[in-house]
Amino acid sequence: MYKLIRTLLPVLAAMIATTVSAQSVSWKSSVQHLDGQTYRIVLEASIPAPWHMYDMGPYEGGPNATAIVFTPGDGVTLEGGVEQLSTPERHYDKTFEMEIGTFAGKARFAQQVKLAAAKATVKAAIEWMICDEVSCMPPDDTELTVELTARPGSAAANSTAAVSPNNDSSA
Predict the structure, then answer these.
(1) Which of 1, 5, 47, 119 has the smallest C-beta neighbourhood within 10 Å, fewest atoms?
(2) How many angstroms separate the CA atoms of 43 and 125, rounded?
């Protein structure tokens, strides 16, 4: 009995590790200065093979579409809605009996913002679901905090320069 348990334990551990790592879509953010006080927050998902993640849908009665909700802090306002920068692969899904869009490998999304302060933060609440050809993982979520810093010479940086003398120009 001891030998059986000792033999099966590594197999069970490997199965659990595979399941956990499969759901580990990793997210990163970056900020692009567009013009004046306008910036674009870009979120990028790295999706492990062989899984795919659904686009922003919506899919009534279908898979859980990727959902991103940005919450601006003081000194920043949202401009427009969330954009899908990556083009999803569209196909008919027999399981859900509808046309759906999916991403494999990477997916990028963006939100344009207007910065009225030298520094501000925006929170991004993200929900997604991944599937392979035979099964789906339960939906997952995360929250990112994106730091925004005004470019030197912009109206936001100039109006509050006395309050924040150590402006970081990396945004």
Answers:
(1) 1
(2) 11
User: Quick one: tokens of 13?
Assistant: 């551990």
What are the tens digits of pLDDT across the range 4-49?
555 554 444 444 434 444 458 999 999 999 999 999 999 999 999 9
The DSSP 8-state label assigned to residue 3 in this structure reads H
User: Do the Cβ atoms of 84 and 111 come closer than 8 Å?
Assistant: no
Asked if 106 contacts 42 with a C-beta cutoff of 8 angstroms, the reply is: no
pTM given for the model: 0.77
CA count, 13 A, side-chain hemisphere, 13: 6
Provide the token pair at 132.
């392979």
Hey, what amino acid is at 18?
A: T
> Phi and psi for 42 in degrees, rounded to 5?
-115, 125
CB burial of residue 148 (10 Å; 0-12, 13-18, 19+)? buried
Tell me the CA distances in angstroms from 20 to 48, 143, 154, 164, one per residue in order. Answer: 11, 19, 45, 43
